[in-house]
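It would be a great kindness if you could assist me with a short task in structural biology. The matter concerns a single protein, recorded as an amino acid sequence and a row of backbone structure tokens. The record follows directly beneath this note:
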Amino acid sequence: MKETIKSLFLTLLVVVSMVQSYYLIYRLPGSDPIVKSENEYIVAESMGTQLEVESMIFPAQILIHMGDDRHSVFYPESTFYNLIYSRLGGRQFGGFQRYSLENINWTDIRRRHEGIELKFENSVPVTLLQKAMQISPDPLFDAESIDRILIYNTENEDQVRVFFFSSDGNVVYEATKVDLTVQDVKQQINFGEEWVPYTLVDGYYIPEKSIDLVETGLPTGLYTAEQLQRSLNFDSSITRYIREKNGSEIYTDSKRSLQVRQDRNWVNFTDPAAPSTGDNSPSKNILSAIDFVNQHDGWSGKYRLEQSEGRDDDKHIVKFQQYYGTAQYGAFPILDTSTFHYGTITLEMRQGTITGYERSLLYIKEGTWFKKVVTLPGGKELREKIKRVSNEAFITNLYPAYLPSLSEEGLLLTPTWVVELSNGATRVLK
């Protein structure tokens, strides 16, 4: 009888031990289950492609100046844009001299001279631009960041002048040693002769004719919280799950946190305690940001370096803008709006270390489910649209973009005109 009781007692102890082991492995006190069994665990698929820095540094626009105040504009991925940028990428630029920006009437040069202008819109460190263009090393110039390059023929057409504009807005650098001839510039300017004419107005360009873009529907997938935890190397054995009243899901290991907004298809990763080492240079932070995305979630489509901005607290913000388009019509940015977050990947850096990371949970799959050519107005009709927002602030830029929306079929990209204002606001012209 005693042996029977002992056997039953030992069996009970084994069962209790197994139950305790289950709760220790699969649940944490005060939280919902986060670790799945092998059968329930989601197998991670590829979360995107890897990109090199040189593929993400390209002008938002290439402006063609044809003299007599005649202009045209080429956009990324279009045939003439690719042809001009690839040719310039093979040319040598060196012998830099520094000047004050205010000493030259740049608007007058753009109106009178034949030339090409690469407009990056953002601050691009020279050390990274050297990966896309043949720029000779220069101790003074290498420490700069630039936002545009102006190449033009002099009035007597016996010299090509090339200027790199510092993004600080105060100085400009002239490359005095270039292997571009007057005929090289003329040949590329000729691409704009039969293209849509643009008018220079207060620093931005308005097309005098309508332009065509393609409204496109793209199938999409959705990254899961489990995939993101695996890609960001969360330790599931110590990760807690918290659900907030606003619907946010937070996964934390007490040092790092992953906030998932399923209602917005948006994720925010923070690692405030990440160790910071080395310098805080823009180029190092940008390269580290690209490496981080390459090693973890990857890229869904084509991206351009959109922002590289330092802050007083030693933090550096690096932002990448997603583009979509075709060779026939060009590629354009996908807008990140207040009502629908999509199209950007933003990283917060400190001395080359990631302390914050935001992106959409949505990603684009292969193929399309809808395509239609859409005409965006130019000339008088476009001027009327611009006039409606011009009293809000000074207009600094005008460009075509895609306005995203989500349907049951996937992501719909609708072409639209966008203006940027001097107060930092962006307005969609309707």
